[in-house]
Amino acid sequence: MTFSRSSTGSVKTVASTAVSEVASNAAESEPVKFLESKFERDTMRRVDWRMLPLLGLLYSVTIIDRSNMGIARTAGMGTDLSLNVGNRFSIASCVYFVPYILLQLPTNLVLRYFGARYCLTFYIFGWGCVELATGFVKNWKDLVLCRVLLGTLEAGFFPALAYIVSTWYTRQEVQTRIAAFFQTAIALSGFGAILSYVITLLKGHGGLSGWSWIFIIEGLFTVFCALLAFLFLPDFPDKNRFLTPEQTDLVLKRVELDRGDSVPDEITFVKVKQVLGDWIIWAHALMFMSSAMPGYAASYFTPIILSGMGYSLSDSLLLSAPPIVFAALCSFIFAWISDKAGRRAIFIAMQSLLNVVGLFLTGYANGQAARYIGIFLFSAGSSGCMSAVISYNANNIVGQTKRSVCSALIISFGGIGGILGTTVFRQQDYPRYIPGTWATVGAQILTLTLLTLTTATYAHRNKQSATRGDVLEGQPGFRYIL
Question: What does the record say about its membrane topology (predicted)?
Fold first, then answer.
């Protein structure tokens, strides 16, 4: 059967046909197989290349723009704006997360109404202008205002990316793809520290400090990226403009066969309330919060920790990059193995334990080399856990309303992890930050506890469905991925 995307009816035809196939496969206990034809492989490869490199670039800009505070402080901003007084640096760092947390759900709910391309372009252009303005602040209160505006404009970005990616791929393809753009962004942001060091060499030009030039140049590049987003950013599958009608129908059919939610459902208050009433969603959110906490601590405090270990300004900035690149590579390998194995929980647990080992090494080891290795380990564990938890949730939900709400809620809790990561590492605990180390280790224990509960619940529901015929997530034949 041939489908056309020129009308809304084509999507419904794809869905109805695919639902029949899902029911048939469920009845025969045969798994749906994908990527068996050259046309299908070529189509998904085209989707990969159009989507993942661009999303990785754009998200790396987000990471660099939100986390260059530690680098700027090391480069002189702390002295110029009196950020070393009391907890001013922690306050200026964590206020970003207040609007970032509060606005993620509403921005994700309106994403389909306004269109992903228009929304994301607006966000990127807006925070690029704020980043540019940050280079001209004269006191720490103006810096706080800029950070609030930055959090407001970045709030809708990452949950939108996670939501969009999950609508294009089947469940056993999602983690590798999320990890691909997420870890590409992490790796590119690692070179942001080196870039920032080079930019600081402009100190004195135009009567500006080196740290001011960091914000100005990175802000201008972000504004340029807004243009790239407007021209090339892919939208949802049913709204895309780069695939042929036949390729679009194939993408929609694959998603429908896998989990039955290729057709967007109407977002209503009742549905949102129902999603928010599921305790497992909140458990995933808390796991993401705990995973993000050491990651934010690393991005904000690695240059400062290295400085406390006796390294010079240039060495502290340059040595901040290798752990981030290692984290990206390590996390992508974990994601690839996880997708191949069709398992999620065991790999989240392994990376959470990697966090614990790395944190203890950085906090308690005596030699510089051992402490530096610790930064490698907990950076890798954190970034890997973050993409894995997002995938674990995306694998085990059906319906685009639920997908939209969950991605926003979970990633907003990452903002809470950011607040914790920037406040538990207090100025008075410099240079080893032992209380912050223990608080972050406690977050990993919370992750492992919640992971055990959610996985046991999913396994029990799968068993009940197999023995009693319970329908999971309202989709016949659906099984949770553990």
Answer: Multi-pass membrane protein
Say how far apart CA 155 and CA 355 lie, in whole Å: 26
Cβ(478)–Cβ(259) below 8 Å: yes
**Which tokens hold the place of 358?**
């790395």
- The amino acid that residue 66 corresponds to is R
Rounded to the nearest angstrom, the gap between the alpha carbon of residue 209 and the centroid of all alpha carbons in its chain is 32
The Cα 357–Cα 40 span in angstroms is 42
The pair of three-digit structure tokens given for residue 302, joined into one six-digit string = 């690695």
Q: Half-sphere exposure (CA, 13 Å, Cβ side) for 362? A: 36
Question: What does the pLDDT look like over 364-378, one tens digit per residue?
Answer: 998 899 999 999 999
How far apart, in whole angstroms, are the C-alpha atoms of residue 283 and residue 348?
14
The CATH class of the 47-462 domain is mainly alpha
Indicate the helix (H) or strand (E) that contains 4. Answer: none
Determine which helix (DSSP H) or strand (DSSP E) holds 475, and give its type and residue range: none
Evaluated on CA atoms 150, 155, 159, 164, the torsion sign reads negative
Which helix (H) or strand (E) segment holds residue 395: the answer is helix 368-395
- Per-residue pLDDT at 196: 81
Residue 3 region, left (φ>0) first, then alpha (ψ -120 to 50), else beta?
beta
Burial of 23 (0-12, 13-18, 19+ CB in 10 A): middle
Alpha-carbon distances, residue 159 vs 58, 137, 151, 236, 466 (angstroms): 13, 29, 13, 14, 33
Confidence of residue 223 (pLDDT cuts 50, 70, 90): very high
What is the signed CA dihedral for 248, 251, 257, 261, rounded to 10 degrees? -80
Rounded mean pLDDT, 329-340: 90
Q: What is the pLDDT of residues 35-74, one digit of tens each?
A: 778 999 999 999 999 999 999 999 899 888 887 887 788 7
Cβ burial of 308 (10 Å; 0-12, 13-18, 19+) is middle
d(Cα 149, Cα 127) in Å, to the nearest integer?
Answer: 7
Q: How far is CA 351 from CA 171, 186, 324, 411, 465, in A?
A: 21, 16, 15, 19, 30
Collapsed DSSP state (helix, strand, coil) of residue 241: coil
- ω into residue 294 within 30 of 0, thus cis? no
Q: Contacts from 109-115 at CB under 8 Å and sequence distance 24+? A: 109/267, 109/272, 109/404, 109/405, 109/408, 111/156, 111/160, 111/163, 111/404, 112/236, 112/264, 112/267, 112/400, 112/404, 115/235, 115/239
Contacts of 388 (CB under 8 A, 6+ apart): 175, 179, 291, 334, 335, 338, 344, 347, 348, 351
